[in-house]
Structures are given as structure tokens and as C-alpha cells.
Amino acid sequence: MKTLLVIGIGAGDPDYLTLQAIAALNRASTFFLFDKGTEKDSLIHLRETICARHIRQADYRFVTAPIPERRREGDYRQAVDDLNAAKQALMEEMIEHELADDECGAFLVWGDPALYDSTLRILAAIRRDGRLDFDYEVIPGISSVQALAARHRVPLNRIGQALEITPGRHLERFPAHLDSLVVMLDSHEAYRRLDEPGLHIYWGAYVGTADEILIAGPLQEVAEEIHRVRSAAREEHGWIMDTYLLCRGPADA
Ligand SMILES: C[S@@+](CC[C@H](N)C(=O)[O-])C[C@H]1O[C@@H](n2cnc3c(N)ncnc32)[C@H](O)[C@@H]1O
């Protein structure tokens, strides 16, 4: 039977790879990559660097498919469903044609596969559809959320309290029932809309990479600085990935 490994590779620093992930890399003969276009070439490059650094056998190969683009207009959920259907078709094709029956293939997932990533949902859908027979395992990785907290040297939650993680597009105001909130996928800088006094922000871009930028402080004092630095970095690199923790008061109080 074909085996697939879904390997969390951490969210930036090649040293984020766990010992379990390195062992998994060495079990696979074929690595499936989605090419996100030239602006994110460096992310593909990082995956190749990770393989070159950690894989001991010489005869592994990459199979790359162009990632389909998500529609930016119209219903968000429908656009994501359509994107995942297109990815599913590509993944099915790669698994069927690029992996022999007794071979082991791997998907290298940025950060951790359980957090804002569709690979596990798509593999489950492929299995449910029943056209392909394969087994798969998941190897957890260090997510951008953990990396962000480590780089700012703060805990994510207040003692005994809840922590919520949200995409930026759901953030209109800081939720009344929370002390701590992590915001990801925020291309519209939702933190700039928040006017509640006393909020602190721990912001990080390209965390764990050579381009890492960290800014922290009372939101009202640092929001415009984050906006300025973020805009300049986005301009310079052509793309940005950033995450932030918002808390009522300092996170480590
Ligand atoms: C599609 S999600 C993938 C999350 C990933 N699976 C993880 O475990 O972190 C992409 C979002 O993750 C966050 N992200 C990923 N890597 C990051 C990094 N190195 N620095 C800051 N944010 C990052 C950003 O919010 C970005 O918009």
C-alpha cells in the first residue's frame, strides 16, 4: 500500500524541525510540493534546503504542482471549497501517478498541519471518495503561533484562561469573553480597527527566518509603527506572513 507522511516542518527556522520530522523525511522517497508562484519562491527553497540538510539517502525526488489560486472576490467559504477541490484533484493525480504501490511520499506542511492548512482535510476527502488506497501519518510541527510566543518570550494564555485563534477577517473588536487572542491571516491589518484601551500586541513577521521582524507594546502606542514597518517589508519582499497576539495588558503579567 502507498504511504503518505504529512510532515509539519515548522514555521520558518529549519531548526524548528523535530527529531520525529527528520526521521519521517528519511522514510519518504518522493516529496510533493505546491508551487505558490514566484513571490513565495523562498518558501519552496526553504523546503528544498530542509530536505538537503536532513535527508541522508541520495535518491529522493520532488514532484511540484502549481497551486491553484483562490478567488479573491465573492463568497469566501465557496472560494476556499473550490480551491480545495482543485487541490484535491491535483493531489489525487500526484499520488496516483507519481507514487508506486509500496512507496512512501511526503507533503511538507508549513508550521503545523493542524493549523490553517487544508492538507489533512483534502487527504481525508480523497480517502472518502474511495478511488485511491493509501495510508497516512501526521507529524506535528512548530506552528507560527508557538514560534511567535517563543520569540517574544511570552505565554499565550492567562493562568487557567481560554486562548482563541482567529483569522483577521473575523476581528471587529476584541472579544469581551477573552484575555488573549492570536490573529493570523490578517492581510487587512484588523488590529488597526481596535480602539479598546489597555490592549497589548506582540507582532511578528517572517518569524524564525533571517527576515524576522518583532514589535511589541501597548497597541495604541505601536499600531502605527507596525503598520509602517509591515508596509515597507511587504513592499520589499513582495509578500508578508505575520501573526500577532493581543492581550488585555502585558501577556507575561
Ligand atoms: C495558511 S496559514 C498556515 C499556518 C501554519 N500551518 C502554522 O502552523 O503556522 C498562514 C498564516 O500563518 C502565519 N504564519 C506562518 N508562518 C509565519 C511566520 N514565519 N511568521 C509569522 N506568521 C506566520 C501568518 O498569519 C500566515 O498568514
Strands, helices and their partners?
Elements: E1 2-8, H1 19-25, E2 30-35, H2 41-54, E3 61-66, H3 76-98, E4 104-109, H4 119-129, E5 134-139, H5 144-152, E6 163-167, E7 180-184, E8 199-205, E9 213-218, H6 219-237, E10 242-248
Parallel strand pairs: 1-4, 1-5, 2-3, 2-4, 6-7
Antiparallel strand pairs: 7-10, 8-9, 8-10
Helix pairs in contact: 3-4
S-adenosylmethionine binds next to strand 8 and strand 10.
Protein name: Precorrin-6A synthase (Deacetylating)
Enzyme class: transferase
Organism: Pseudomonas benzopyrenica
What's the short story on this structure?
By secondary structure, the protein is α/β, with parallel strands linked by helices. Helices cover 33% and strands 24% of the residues. It has 2 domains: 2-142, 3-Layer(aba) Sandwich (Cobalt-precorrin-4 Transmethylase, domain 1); 145-248, Methyltransferase, Cobalt-precorrin-4 Transmethylase, Domain 2 (2-Layer Sandwich).
Structural features, described:
This is Precorrin-6A synthase (Deacetylating). Pfam families: TP_methylase. Pathway: Cofactor biosynthesis; adenosylcobalamin biosynthesis. The protein has 253 residues and is α/β, with parallel strands linked by helices. The protein has 2 domains: 2-142, Tetrapyrrole methylase, N-terminal domain (Cobalt-precorrin-4 Transmethylase, domain 1, 3-Layer(aba) Sandwich), CATH 3.40.1010.10; 145-248, Methyltransferase, Cobalt-precorrin-4 Transmethylase, Domain 2 (2-Layer Sandwich), CATH 3.30.950.10. The chain has helices at 19-25, 41-54, 76-98, 119-129, 144-152, 219-237, and strands spanning 2-8, 30-35, 61-66, 104-109, 134-139, 163-167, 180-184, 199-205, 213-218, 242-248. A 5-stranded parallel β-sheet has the order 3-2-4-1-5, sandwiched between helices. A 5-stranded mixed β-sheet has the order 6-7-10-8-9, with helices on both faces. The longest helix is centred in the middle third of the chain and has 23 residues, at 76-98. The site of S-adenosylmethionine has 20 residues, from strand 8 and strand 10.
